[in-house]
Write a structure and sequence with these properties.
The complex is a heterodimer of chains A (340) and B (405). Chain A is an all-alpha fold and 340 residues long. Chain A has one domain: ABC transporter involved in vitamin B12 uptake, BtuC (Orthogonal Bundle), CATH 1.10.3470. The chains are: A mainly alpha (340), B alpha/beta (405). Chains A and B meet through helix 9 and helix 10 of A and helix 2 and strand 7 of B.
Chain lengths: 340, 405
C-alpha cells in the first residue's frame, strides 16, 4: 500500500479517537454540572452501582441529567447527518434542515397536532409527534424541491428555504392563537428548542429511529461518494438516480424530523458540523465523513447544552440560541470563502 | 456493426427533436459528431448514454439492446466524459479517477489492489499520475479534463462517449487528448463516440463522421469522403470567410476594395504569410504567378482579389504571363516575398525583373536585392514591411473597406 494512503488512514483514526475522547469528556462534564452540586465519585456510584436509589441526587442524575445528555448526543449527531445529506443532495455546503425551512415544517405540523390532539388526551405518545414532524418536514422539503426546479442558483434556493421557514412559523403562530393555555405552555417551551424534559421512553424511540437511519445512510456511502461528482457522472457509474434521490430526501427528512419532534427546531448545527467534519478529516469520503459528522454533532450539541444550562444558571438558554451563536458566524465564513 | 442505433429518436420532454437516427460504428473505431452549436449533437450523445430518455428506437451494443441491460451492466460497457463542470470538494485526483471503479467494487466501494493498479494505469495513460494526490478543484481545465478521461478509462468500458472534450483545452492539450483517444481505439480496441467543434481535428481523428445540422442528420461516412469545403460551409452556414479542408485552415472574411494597388510575388509558401498580413490590414492585393499545386494558391484563392495561376507541372504559358504583366503593371506597390529565382525559363523572375525596371515602389523581403532602376525598400520581417508608409491606406480606401463573402 502507498505511504500516503497509510498516512491518511492514521489521520482518520487519530481524529476519530480525539472526537471520542471529546465526547466522553463533554458527557462527564455535562453530568457533573447543574444546580445540584455533586462530587464525581457520587455520580459514578449512582450510575454504575445504582447507589442512593430514590434519593434526590439519584433522581437528578437518572431522571434529568442522564436522559438529557444522551438525547443531546443522539439528536446532535442525527441533525448533523441530516445536514450532510442535504448538502450532498443540493451539492451546496450551506444547506441544512433549518435554513431550508424543513425544521420549521416539522414544527408547524407538530404544533398543529399538539393543539388538536391535546384537547382529547393529556400526553401524546412520542411516536405520534415524530410522525407529525416527519410529515411536516416532507411537506417543506416538497416545496424546497419545487423551488429547486426553478432556481439553479444556490443562494436563491436558500432564500426560498428561509421564506418557507417564515411561512411555517407564521402558520404555527396562527394556530397558537386558537390554543388553550396549557397547550401554549407546552408548545412555546418546545418550540424554543431544548433537550430538557426528554424521558427514557423517548430516548428509546429516538435511538431506534436514528441508529437505523444512520445504518442505512452508511450503506449509501458508496453512491453518495459517486454523487459528489454530479448527477451525470453518478448515473453513468450505474446509480439509479431517482431512487437514490428519494432515499436522500426521506432519510434527511426523517433525521431532522426526529430532532425537531423531541427537541424543537435547532439552528445551524446541520450546516456547520458536516463542514467541520470535512475540515478535520481533510476529505469528503462519505464512509469517513458520515460517522465523523455524527460524532462531531454529538460533541457539539452536548457542549452547547452545557453552555445553555450553565452560562446564566439558574436561567436556561434555549439550545438554538447557543448553537446559533457558534454556528451563524461559521456559516458567514463559509459564504465568504465560497465567493473566492 | 458493434455499436448502432436503429431508428433512434431523441428529444426533450417526450418531443422528438431528431428522428430516425441510424448510425453505427465498428469496435475500436472512432465516431465523431460534427455540427454547429445547438444542432443536437449533445442530445444524441446524452440519449445514447441514457442521460436522456430516448423517444423511440433502439440502441445496440454488440447486438444487445441497451434497454435490456441494467444500469450497472451499462456502466461496465460504457463510460462518459461530460460537459458539465464538476467541483467535488476535498477530493484528490486519485479519488476522482477511482470513482470509475464504481461498477466493480463491493457494496462499500472498497478498492482492491487490482483496482488500485487499474487506477494507476489509467492515470498513467493520460499522463496525470503525478497529480494523484492533488486536490481536483485546484487543477487547470486541461488537467481536469485529462483526469476525467482517466476516470472514464478506469471504468474499463468498451465504449467511451465524450461530449466536446476539447473545449477549454489549449492546442497542445487538444492534440494530446485526441492522441490518447486514437491510441486507445487502436491499442485497446475501445470504441470512441464523441462530438467536436474543430472540423480539422475531427477529420484527422475520426473513422466515421456524422454531420448534424438543424436537428437532422445531414450526412455521414468516412471524413475523407464526406468533408469538403462546400459541405463545411453549408453545415455551419458560413457566409463570410472560408474553411479550406485541404489546408485544414480557417480564413477570415475577405476585405473588398474597389481596386488593388499591391501586387505580391508568391510561390513555394513564401506568399502565404504576406497574404495573411496584408489581409489583416485590409489591403486588397493581386498575386501571381502561382502553380495550382502550390500551398500559396490555396490561401490566395481565399484572400487575394485576383490570383493569376498556371496548371501544375508545365511552363507558364504566354497567356498567363500576359495576364500577370497586366495585373502587375496596374499596381503601384510590388512585394517581392523572396521566391525561388532559379531556372532557365523562370517566368516569375522575368516578371520580377520587369517590375524592377519600372518606377514602382518595391518592398522586398529578399536577402539580396536585384539591381534595379526602381525604388527598393528592404525588410527583414513582415511585421516591419506591413507598417511601411507605402502600404498605408488613405482615407478614401479606408472608407471603402467592406467584408465580402
Amino acid at each position: 500500500m502507498k505511504i500516503s494512503r497509510v498516512g491518511k488512514i492514521a489521520h482518520y483514526q487519530i481524529v476519530f479517537m480525539l472526537l471520542m475522547l471529546a465526547l466522553i469528556g463533554a458527557l462527564i462534564f455535562s453530568i457533573n454540572s447543574g444546580s445540584v452540586d455533586m462530587p464525581v465519585k457520587d455520580i459514578f456510584k449512582i450510575i454504575v452501582f445504582g447507589a442512593q436509589e430514590g434519593s434526590v441526587e439519584s433522581n437528578v442524575i437518572w431522571k434529568i441529567r442522564l436522559p438529557r445528555l444522551i438525547a443531546a448526543a443522539i439528536l446532535g449527531g442525527a441533525l448533523s447527518v441530516a445536514g450532510f445529506l442535504l448538502q450532498t443532495f443540493f451539492r451546496n455546503p450551506i444547506a441544512g434542515p433549518y435554513v431550508l425551512g424543513i425544521s420549521s415544517g416539522s414544527k408547524m405540523f407538530v404544533g398543529f397536532t399538539m393543539i388538536v390532539l391535546m384537547r382529547y388526551v393529556n400526553a401524546l405518545p412520542s411516536g405520534i409527534i415524530v410522525l407529525a414532524a416527519f410529515a411536516g418536514s416532507l411537506v417543506s422539503m416538497g416545496f424546497v424541491l419545487l423551488a429547486a426546479r426553478k432556481v439553479s442558483n444556490m443562494s436563491m434556493l436558500l432564500l426560498v428555504g428561509v421564506m418557507i421557514g417564515y411561512i411555517c412559523s407564521a402558520l404555527t403562530d396562527f394556530f397558537v392563537n386558537f390554543a388553550q393555555e396549557r397547550e401554549i405552555a407546552n408548545l412555546t417551551n418546545w418550540s424554543m428548542g431544548s433537550f430538557s424534559g426528554i424521558g427514557w421512553s423517548d430516548i428509546g424511540v429516538m435511538a431506534i429511529i436514528v441508529f437505523i437511519s444512520l445504518l442505512v445512510v452508511m450503506m449509501l456511502s458508496k453512491p453518495i461518494g459517486a454523487y459528489q461528482l454530479g448527477e451525470g457522472y453518478a448515473q453513468s457509474m450505474g446509480i439509479n438516480i431517482k431512487w437514490f434521490r428519494i432515499l436522500l430526501v426521506l432519510f434527511s427528512s426523517l433525521l431532522s424530523a426526529t430532532v425537531t419532534a423531541f427537541a424543537g427546531p435547532i439552528a445551524f448545527v446541520g450546516i456547520a458540523v458536516p463542514q467541520i467534519a470535512k475540515i478535520l478529516m481533510n476529505t469528503s469520503k462519505p464512509i469517513i465523513i458520515i460517522p465523523t459528522t455524527f460524532l462531531a454533532g454529538s460533541v457539539f450539541c452536548v457542549f452547547c447544552d452545557i453552555l445553555a444550562r450553565t452560562l446564566f444558571a439558574p436561567t436556561e438558554l434555549s439550545i438554538g440560541t447557543v448553537t446559533a451563536f457558534f454556528g451563524a458566524p461559521f456559516v458567514i465564513w463559509l459564504l465568504l470563502k465560497q465567493k473566492k | 456493426m458493434y455499436f448502432k442505433t436503429d431508428n433512434l429518436s431523441v428529444g426533450y420532454g417526450g418531443k422528438a427533436l431528431i428522428k430516425n437516427i441510424n448510425i453505427g460504428v465498428e469496435k475500436g473505431k472512432i465516431l465523431c459528431l460534427l455540427g454547429p452549436n445547438g444542432s443536437g449533437k449533445s442530445t444524441i450523445l446524452r440519449s445514447i448514454s441514457k442521460h436522456l430518455k430516448k423517444i423511440a428506437g433502439t440502441v445496440f451494443i454488440a447486438k444487445e439492446d441497451m434497454n435490456s441491460l441494467n444500469s450497472v451492466e451499462v456502466a461496465k460497457r460504457l463510460s462518459v466524459v461530460l460537459t458539465e463542470k464538476v467541483a467535488p470538494e476535498l477530493m484528490t485526483c486519485e479519488e476522482v479517477v477511482a470513482t470509475g471503479r464504481y461498477p466493480y467494487t463491493n457494496h462499500f466501494g472498497k478498492l482492491t489492489d487490482d483496482d488500485h493498479r487499474i487506477i494507476e494505469e489509467s492515470m498513467e495513460a493520460v499522463s496525470v499520475l503525478d497529480l494523484m494526490d492533488q486536490e481536483f478543484t485546484h487543477l487547470s481545465d486541461g488537467q481536469k479534463q485529462r483526469v476525467l478521461l482517466a476516470r472514464a478509462i478506469c471504468q474499463q468500458p468498451e465504449i467511451i462517449i465524450l461530449d466536446e472534450p476539447t473545449s477549454y483545452l489549449d492546442i497542445r492539450h487538444k492534440i494530446e487528448l485526441l492522441g490518447i483517444l486514437r491510441s486507445m481505439a487502436v491499442k485497446q480496441n475501445v470504441t470512441v463516440i464523441l462530438s467536436l467543434h474543430e472540423v480539422d481535428l475531427a477529420a484527422k481523428l475520426a473513422d466515421t463522421i456524422i454531420l448534424v445540422k438543424d436537428n437532422t442528420i445531414f450526412g455521414s461516412g468516412c471524413p475523407e469522403d464526406v468533408l469538403n469545403d462546400g459541405v463545411i460551409k453549408t453545415l455551419y452556414g458560413i457566409e463570410a470567410g472560408s474553411f479550406n479542408m485541404l489546408m485544414g485552415s480557417v480564413e477570415l472574411p475577405r476585405t473588398c476594395m474597389s481596386d488593388s494597388r499591391v501586387f505580391v510575388f508568391g510561390g513555394d509558401g513564401y506568399g502565404t504569410r504576406c497574404y495573411r498580413a496584408l489581409h489583416k490590414s485590409g489591403i486588397s492585393f493581386c498575386t501571381g504567378v502561382l502553380y495550382h499545386n502550390d500551398v500559396d494558391y490555396q490561401v490566395a484563392m481565399s484572400l487575394a482579389r485576383q490570383t493569376i495561376f498556371e496548371k501544375s507541372f508545365r511552363p507558364i504559358s504566354d497567356v498567363i504571363y500576359e495576364q500577370a504583366c497586366k495585373a502587375m503593371l496596374k499596381c503601384e506597390v510590388i512585394i517581392d516575398t523572396g521566391f525561388d529565382l532559379d531556372g532557365e525559363t523562370n517566368r516569375n523572375r522575368q516578371l520580377l525583373e520587369l517590375a524592377y525596371n519600372t518606377n514602382k515602389s518595391i518592398l522586398s523581403l529578399r536577402k539580396q536585392t536585384l539591381k534595379s532602376k526602381a525604388e527598393v525598400q528592404q525588410f527583414e520581417t513582415i511585421g516591419a514591411m506591413i507598417n511601411s508608409e507605402k502600404l498605408k491606406l488613405d482615407s478614401d480606401e479606408m472608407s471603402s473597406i467592406s467584408l465580402c463573402s
